[in-house]
UniProtKB/TrEMBL annotation:
Residues 326-360 are annotated as: Disordered. This is FUSC family protein. Its main location: membrane. The chain crosses the membrane at residues 123-143, 149-168, 394-418, 438-456, 463-480, 486-503, 515-535. Residues 405-527 form the Integral membrane bound transporter domain. The keyword Transmembrane applies. Keywords: Cell membrane, Membrane, Transmembrane, Transmembrane helix. The keyword Transmembrane helix applies.
Length: 707
């Protein structure tokens, strides 16, 4: 993609306004916390302290909106505490340019490394630097700097307390993540009716898994319906694929296929109903037609052999999902006592091992905030290495922020913090977000500053009216922040103008000065990325190779279970599957970012990348078909499967090495193993699955041949 086209695409992305479901109650709660802090500070300490302390409540509320599975009060406290430390250090060095510049370099570098711990940590750290640049311009003495820091932290405490005292949809994020996973499987079941080999995006399942990890305190309070459905959803996915695929299930046409389509449609409706109940915290209300379809007694006379067993397994798993969500004490008609949950029972018992080949995993725990600190530091240290995109981002953002600060001092505009503040807020570790946010920041600041300055110059609001206007702007930002960065920046720019106008600082600065400094900060951010980039495109081959390696280990782990059904089995298969999923997501994320980069493909064209990704997805699907029919622990072993497992592992590792070296991978050894497998194994499923695995790898070689 050319630079001109890349700039056009990122500009369009940055200025896009999306239609999203708003959360006015949560936005009002955040604005209430800000109003309490500003009002108290004004009444007791005056405008200067109020202007500084307001940022603590403002930023703490933003932290509670981040996509994080940690308790919202914890996020608010972490944001308020870290911002208090940042501003206190900024106050101590603010009157000494050299010292403050050194602090800015160090603090910005650390904020860049904080992205190693995830987007939430990176956003909070970046905001701390940006707000520090604003607050240290407010006149104060070192003696009162500690008091300001305490008030900033108090803003975080207030927001945390409001989350506890005024809860809005507790566990809402976790409910949405689990419901989205079940809804994704419902959509998958419906698509399988028309496309028996349809692809499935595992991201919703991975998100639900991440949301299921809880702290010890959360574990004691988590609703019962959030405990088990995710694990069952993991088991349902391969069963759906196995039931639909003509290669291992019912024929492509005829009465059996019609019955399979009926079962898939009913499964979709049951999963949708369960997702709706989890999202809203209500009892499950199953469609009668879907329940009737699952209870049809003639399934055994229509479906035969493996397809029949798979159908029974699916019905049993759907019943388990409904049972884990359905409240045990739901009252019957007229409220006269409990009624039995409306579940879809299996016509015959199905062993747990046959439902997905795995024991139930222990609940995943998340470390507390204090125990998390050394883990985050370890993640940050791990990124201090050559080739790390996070390290390049940290160096880039710190240099750009320092350059913006120095230019702000030299230029005759006054309040030069607008330039470095803009750079810090828009810069991200990838090209697309940095450029899109730079354009959005400039557009939003242009509108927000113009409107706010016009109000200040025409209405001349006093201290208290300026405070009210600042709170209203903050409410608008909380309400609209998910609709687009440009929209939220209109409110943020106006908020800063009104907040500083409350104390009398910055009122004399013109719209032109503020907009030009914002433009300067955005241009510095864009120039910094162009001069010191971290392109995703050159990394694609390495990520594709990693996906191939992890997929091979997953397929090998599944095959090894057939060779030794009584072995450890399931944990190995599970861990291998999770690694393959993580590699797949990393590949797709990088591919999406690389699509908008203004660089040549460097050995892997977009067509080759698309073909290779499709081939590896088919490889994973074939392995999943094998996993859907894993033998029970008492089943007789299949010695030939051990050779297939070893051949899969070695072949994919050699193939990954060839991909990294820009060579076309060959599968001759694996081809010989599969040919021998056909003569040694009589089970049609195992023979077909091995052929599908080899065919997918051949498709991968074909896709890479013209890379």
């Amino acid at each position: 993609m050319s630079w001109l086209r890349a700039l056009r695409e990122t500009a369009r992305s940055g200025l896009t306004v999306e239609r999203r479901r708003l959360a006015p109650v949560i936005a009002a709660r955040g604005a209430l916390g800000l109003a309490l802090v500003v009002g108290f500070s004004l009444a007791v300490f005056g405008p200067a302290v109020a202007a500084a302390s307001a940022f603590g409540a403002f930023q703490a509320a933003i932290a509670t909106f981040q996509r994080s599975w940690r308790p919202r009060p914890t996020l608010a406290l972490a944001s308020g505490g870290s911002l208090a430390v940042s501003t206190f250090l900024g106050y101590l060095t603010g009157s000494h340019t050299i010292l403050f510049l050194a602090l800015l370099l160090l603090w910005t570098f650390l904020s860049g490394l904080a992205w190693a711990a995830g987007p939430t940590a990176g956003i909070i750290a970046s905001s701390n630097v940006a707000i520090m640049l604003v607050t240290v311009t407010l006149p104060t003495s070192v003696a009162t700097a500690a008091g300001h820091a305490v008030m900033i932290f108090a803003g975080g405490v207030v927001q945390a307390a409001l989350v506890v005292l005024l809860p809005v949809r507790p566990w809402g994020a976790q409910r949405d993540a689990l419901a989205d996973a079940l809804a994704a499987e419902a959509d998958y079941a419906r698509r399988l009716r028309h496309d028996p080999v349809a692809a499935f995006d595992p991201v919703p399942l991975m998100t639900a898994r991440s949301a299921a990890a809880v702290t010890p305190r959360q574990a004691r309070r988590r609703p019962a319906e959030l405990h088990g459905p995710r694990r069952l959803a993991e088991r349902i996915r391969p069963v759906l694929a196995s039931l639909a695929d003509p290669a291992v299930g019912a024929p492509a046409e005829g009465p059996q296929r019609d019955r399979v389509r009926e079962l898939l449609a009913a499964a979709g409706e049951v999963l949708d109903a369960t997702a709706h109940a989890i999202r809203r915290g209500e009892p499950v209300r199953l469609p009668p037609a879907a329940v009737a379809a699952l209870r049809t007694p003639d399934t055994g006379t229509i479906l035969t052999d493996r397809a029949h067993r798979t159908a029974l397994r699916l019905i049993a798993l759907l019943g388990d999902v409904v049972e884990t969500v359905e409240p045990r004490t739901e009252t019957g008609p007229g409220g006269r006592g409990p009624k039995a949950p409306a579940r879809a029972p299996a016509p015959a018992p199905v062993p747990a091992a046959a439902r997905g080949g795995g024991s139930v995993l222990a609940p995943r725990t998340r470390p507390t905030l204090l125990r998390l600190a050394p883990l985050v530091l370890a993640q940050m240290r791990a990124e201090v290495r050559p080739g790390s995109a996070i390290l390049r981002h940290a160096i880039r953002v710190s240099v750009v922020a320092a350059a913006g600060y120095l230019l702000g001092l030299v230029l005759p505009f006054g309040h030069g913090y607008w330039a470095p503040m803009t750079s810090v807020m828009v810069m991200r570790p990838d090209f697309s977000q940095t450029y899109a946010r730079s354009v959005a920041r400039f557009g939003g600041t242009l509108v927000g500053v113009a409107l706010a300055t016009a109000v200040v110059r025409t209405a001349h609001p006093g201290t208290y009216l300026s405070a009210v206007l600042a709170v209203l702007c903050a409410f608008g930002m909380y309400l609209l922040m998910r609709t687009g960065y440009a929209v939220s920046q209109v409110c943020v720019a106006a908020y800063v103008v009104f907040l500083l106008g409350m104390e009398g600082s910055g009122v004399t600065q013109t719209v032109r000065d503020r907009v030009l400094l914002t433009l300067l900060g955005g241009l510095l951010a864009m120039l910094g990325y162009a001069l010191y980039p971290a392109w995703e495109t050159p990394r694609l081959r390495g990520l594709l190779a990693e996906w191939l390696t992890t997929s091979g280990r997953y397929a090998a782990a599944v095959a090894a279970r057939y060779a030794d059904p009584a072995g450890p089995g399931s944990p190995d298969v599970r861990e291998a599957l999770l690694s393959a999923r993580a590699a797949r997501v990393a590949w797709h994320d990088a591919l999406g970012r690389a699509t908008h980069e203004p660089v040549r493909h460097r050995g892997l064209s977009h067509a080759a990348a698309e073909g290779a990704g499709h081939a590896l997805a088919e490889f994973g699907r074939a392995a999943m078909l094998l996993e859907a029919h894993l033998p029970e622990r008492g089943a007789p072993p299949l010695p030939a499967a051990a050779g297939l497992a070893e051949a899969l592992r070695k072949a994919t590792e050699r193939g990954a090495k060839a991909v990294r070296e820009r060579k076309e991978p060959a599968w001759d050894d694996l081809r010989e193993t599969v040919a021998a497998w056909d003569t040694e194994v009589t089970d049609p499923l195992l023979r077909k699955a091995a052929r599908l695995l080899l065919a997918a790898l051949d498709d991968l070689s074909t896709a890479l041949a013209d890379a």
